[in-house]
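Inputs:
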Amino acid sequence: MKNIVILISGRGSNMSSLVQACAQQRWNARICAVISNRADAAGLAFAQAQGIPAHVIAHRDFSSREAFDAALADCIDRHAPDIVALAGFMRILTDGFVQRFGGRLVNIHPSLLPAFTGLHTHRRAIEAGCKVAGATVHFVTATLDHGPIIAQAVVPVLPGDDEGTLAARVLEREHVLYPRAIGWLVNDLLRVESGIVTVVDGESQLLL
Ligand code: GRF
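Outputs:
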C-alpha cells in the first residue's frame, strides 16, 4: 500500500481527480494527507469532506523559504509518503526539499515542457501562435518546471481561444493525465534512464 501526499495552493481540481481515481480504480494506495500553503485553498474543503487529513502550512508564517520548506517537509514526512504529488502548489521549492523527496516528487504543469515554464502558460502559448498546447507530468528536480517527463497531454489551440478557453481545454486533460501518471507510480511501472522515463506495460505516455 503506497502513501500519497498531495500539495495544493488553491482550487484543487487535480487533487480531487487523484482522490477519485484512487478510489474508483482501486489503487493499492491511499491519499494520506492534503497540505496547502494557503488557508483559503478551496481544495481543503473537498479533502476534509472525503475524510482526508488536511493541513495548512502557511508560507507567510515563516521568515525564509528554507524555514517554510523544513516545516512542510516535516509535515509531509509524518505521513511517510511513497509519492508526493504537487497539484497546483504555487511555491518554488528549495534544493534541500527536492533532494529530500527526490524520485518520489512529481508535478503537473500546464504546458508542453520544456516550453513555457513558469506562469501564464496559456496566454504565452496563444501569444506565440502555438497550434497545440497541453500539460506535462514530470519528476521534480531542483530546476523549476524541469525534470524527467512522465507523460504529456496535447490539445489544439483553436482560433478565437483566449487564456480561459485554452486553460479549460487543458485542465480537462490534466484530470485524465495526472491520475494515469500517478497510477504508474503506484504500480512501480516507471523506469528512468538518462533522464528519459518509460512505462513498463502501461498506457501511452502521450494523451491526445
Ligand atoms: C493546473 O492547471 C496545474 O497544471 C497547475 O496549476 C493548476 C492547478 O489547478 N500546476 P487545480 O488547483 O488542480 O484545480
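Remarks. The chain is about 35% helix and 25% strand. Strands lie at 2-8, 29-36, 54-56, 83-86, 105-109, 132-139, 149-156, 190-193, 196-199, 206-207.
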